[in-house]
Amino acid sequence: MRIQLLDNITGKWAIQWIVIWFICGVIALSAGFWLTTEHTTLDWFYLAVSFIGLICVVSLSFRKNIMGNGFGMAATAGEFVVQATSGAVGLMLAPLFNFFSHLYGIFYWSKHTDADGDMVPKSASRWIWLLTIAFMVIGLALFPTVNDLLASYGYAVVEDDNSKFLGLISFFWINVIAFVLSITAQAAMILRYSFNWWLWILSNFVWLTVNLMSGNYIFAIQTMVYQVNSFVGLYEWYRSEQDSVELAKPIR
Fold it and tell me: Which residues constitute the domain of residue 138?
């Protein structure tokens, strides 16, 4: 199904959309920074990393290899430094994984480009879907055990303080679900599967809850800005995938 507005946003209005979206993201993040932080050096660094993240995700949604994966490496390196500086050693694992996945993506995407030099997405077979679901189920099942093991060495990814969201849902499990979803979505994106955006959309909803509960309002705002981009990325990747299939059909 084609949607005219999204066709325009991902087509002839792409530059205008990117500029407007980026400016809105910068304004939102800057407001969150100014109103909710103490403006320390680490807060300023956090803000700069967020700006780099904006460039990264919008470039990925429009299938730009060097800008998307290149700025992705810069953003995740920044997140790694932030977590290390704040003493959250376990939380360094996700940006570390993302850094090396973007590094791999630079080379992998360059081998699968269209005439404009943009990466060509691919659809997932039934087996890829089953493998993805199995990966998430196994990840959720094993995470508490692995997290406890890492905690014994002082490297816990998620701390379990028995807090609950709305007094019902364990905050620990919300964090676990967010972590597993984002790792799976990142892997699917780097492997060029269009369905990765569905995972990012779901992941963003979960991360929004995590960030609000932990008082991390800059990244809560960033998550909402990212969510808008995820819907555009979802449409752009599926449209590109369908167009590449049409071009591959033999002319009769």
Answer: 4-248
